[in-house]
Design a protein that fits this description.
The chain has 106 residues and is mostly helical. The chain is 89% helix and 0% strand.
Length: 106
């Protein structure tokens, strides 16, 4: 999975430019945020000039992976369980995004 994610991110970057990393990270994050984050980090390690792309890409992968977890919670456990899980996961996503957003707003 890591190899597939790395290949997809590298291909998108070559074909569509640096901004494609965000779309690729978001889509790959639905399946696995860890492999996608590692793929983005390995590409940034090869070209340090792209370090500004790293954190937003990882945040997007994490967020899309959280959305897939929320959907699965509703499917597997019904409305009550899904609602319970969703509250906790949204709190984690907000806590994950807040520091980055704070630096952008200041």
């Amino acid at each position: 999975l890591l190899s597939a994610a790395t290949s997809a991110v590298a291909w998108a970057q070559v074909a569509y430019g640096q901004q494609a990393i965000y779309l690729t990270a978001t889509l790959a994050g639905f399946a696995d945020a860890h492999a996608d984050a590692a793929a983005v980090m390995s590409l940034v390690a090869q070209d340090a000039s792209q370090s500004a792309l790293l954190l937003p890409a990882v945040l997007l992968a994490f967020t899309s992976n959280t959305i897939s977890k929320i959907v699965m919670a509703y499917i597997a456990g019904g409305w009550r369980y899904g609602s319970f899980v969703t509250g906790g996961l949204i709190a984690v996503v907000v806590a994950f995004w807040l520091p980055w957003l704070a630096t952008k707003l200041m």
